[in-house]
Write a sequence for this structure.
């Protein structure tokens, strides 16, 4: 068995174990063992990848651990797997979020077993998407990742959860409809001989006029999940209503499928259209970056603040990819990794605070630093990472993006970069405003004085995420080198 297939096999075994489990301790045991194995496997994969890449350069072997098994020969569909530097860091991110999300959901009730079953199915789709190199199989895992969201939000969510779940499902299914049209268009107009992304990119035989037709289908289809303006409206409602670990996985990993798909499929397989139509989507992504930050400033719900912040930061990912320079695209993947970690930390802390105060309204919170210092300090750290303080992951990712974007010498790209840079100031406004409002000053409600600080499972989850956010910010070179390894071959096709 190919080592990459373990990223699908282990979650499937976890599903079987959860189905067999008869009590809460057994359910928790299955999740801890399974998520730990996935985390260990992803860490091992990073070292194995670096070791293999030393002797197998990306120019000759763009994908490592590659394997292809025919699945449906009439349409040349195969179970094709392989990883480059981008896939490796995305798998590592997914494993960290699933591992920490398990502990963040330690106290979740009711129907804990059913919750973890759907949570694990969601993670199965995410892992499968990142390891596959066949377009149809990628799409299949993409759908597997989306479908559980409806139940996870609709059943275990809070607030107007039924509306949020339905809105999310309808908009993402609409994006999927665009995707399947684009995928079939690429397949037939590339010769209808393969659905393997690497093989189609090598042929480079899709007419430019055809590329212009199908590029918007693919980019918008994935862009809906990546919170591309104006298709982002499902995201704040979905985040606000989702349970804690689902918000962590949703914002931390699921939204990254959008940016990954835009780069891996839309831009890589339709490079001529990407060059000619990039300006249209660059305008939309610039709006996403600024609009998301400004919208966060006027929110009073903690989850909505972080949700609109995610719209801004994920818009920055698509913005950087469309700049099509090596530095900017490396920054885009770093931003995916950084945002995944820090937004998971944010949603974990918000869920823990809400679980005690039973409100997310910043107008009803205050003085929490005196009552729950551990969670409050964690929130401050998450906020500083979000606004790009040096030493944390947000700083290195955003600086790489803006430096790389400014490498384009024309006026249009530089003006767009300057406008996007204004989001840094706006981000500082809503982060510092929120931190000052909810953590300091007088205690908003006397009943809050009876509340307790974080439990051991919550502390463990938060500490793991803080360690990753600070580690990536302090030692980013290894991640940058791994990512550049995956970015360079794709850009060589796009900028050919």
């Amino acid at each position: 068995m190919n080592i990459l297939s373990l990223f699908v096999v282990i979650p499937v075994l976890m599903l079987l174990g959860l189905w067999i489990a008869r009590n809460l301790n057994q359910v928790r045991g299955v999740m801890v063992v399974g998520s730990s194995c996935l985390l260990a496997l992803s860490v091992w994969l990073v070292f194995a990848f670096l070791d293999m890449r030393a002797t197998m350069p990306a120019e000759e072997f763009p994908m490592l651990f590659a394997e292809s098994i025919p699945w449906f020969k009439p349409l040349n569909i195969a179970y094709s797997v392989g990883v480059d530097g981008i896939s490796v860091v995305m798998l590592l991110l997914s494993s960290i979020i699933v591992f920490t999300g398990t502990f963040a959901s330690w106290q979740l009730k009711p129907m804990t077993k059913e919750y973890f079953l759907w949570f694990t199915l969601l993670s199965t789709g995410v892992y499968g998407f990142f390891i596959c190199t066949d377009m149809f199989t990628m799409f299949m895992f993409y759908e597997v990742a989306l479908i559980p969201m409806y139940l996870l939000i609709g059943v275990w969510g809070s607030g107007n959860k039924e509306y949020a779940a339905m809105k999310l499902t309808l908009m993402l299914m609409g994006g999927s409809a665009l995707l399947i049209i684009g995928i079939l268009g690429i397949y037939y107009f590339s010769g209808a001989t393969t659905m393997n992304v690497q093989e189609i990119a090598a042929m480079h035989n899709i007419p430019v006029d055809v590329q212009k037709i199908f590029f918007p289908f693919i980019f918008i289809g994935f862009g809906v999940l990546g919170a591309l303006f104006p298709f982002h409206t499902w995201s704040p409602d979905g985040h606000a209503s989702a349970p804690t670990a689902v918000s962590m996985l949703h914002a931390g990993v699921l939204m990254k499928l959008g940016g990954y798909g835009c780069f891996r499929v839309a831009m890589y397989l339709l490079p001529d259209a990407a060059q000619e139509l990039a300006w249209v989507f660059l305008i939309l992504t610039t709006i996403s970056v600024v609009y998301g930050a400004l919208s966060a400033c006027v929110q009073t719900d903690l989850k909505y603040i972080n949700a609109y912040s995610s719209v801004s930061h994920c818009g920055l990912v698509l913005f950087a990819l469309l700049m099509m320079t090596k530095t900017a695209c490396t920054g885009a993947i770093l931003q995916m990794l950084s945002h995944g970690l820090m937004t998971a930390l944010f949603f974990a802390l918000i869920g823990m605070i809400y679980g005690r105060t039973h409100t997310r309204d910043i107008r009803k919170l205050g003085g929490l630093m005196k009552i729950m210092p551990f969670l409050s300090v964690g929130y401050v750290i998450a906020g500083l990472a979000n606004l790009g303080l040096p030493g944390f992951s947000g700083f290195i990712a955003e600086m790489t993006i803006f430096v790389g974007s400014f490498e384009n010498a024309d006026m249009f790209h530089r003006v767009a970069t300057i406008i996007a840079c204004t989001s840094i100031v706006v981000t500082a406004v809503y982060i510092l405003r929120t931190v000052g409002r909810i953590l300091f000053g007088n205690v908003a409600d006397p009943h809050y004085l009876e509340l307790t600080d974080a439990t051991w499972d919550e502390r463990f989850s938060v500490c793991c995420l803080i360690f990753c956010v600070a580690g990536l910010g302090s030692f980013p070179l290894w991640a940058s080198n791994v990512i550049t390894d995956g970015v360079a071959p794709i850009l060589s096709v796009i900028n050919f």
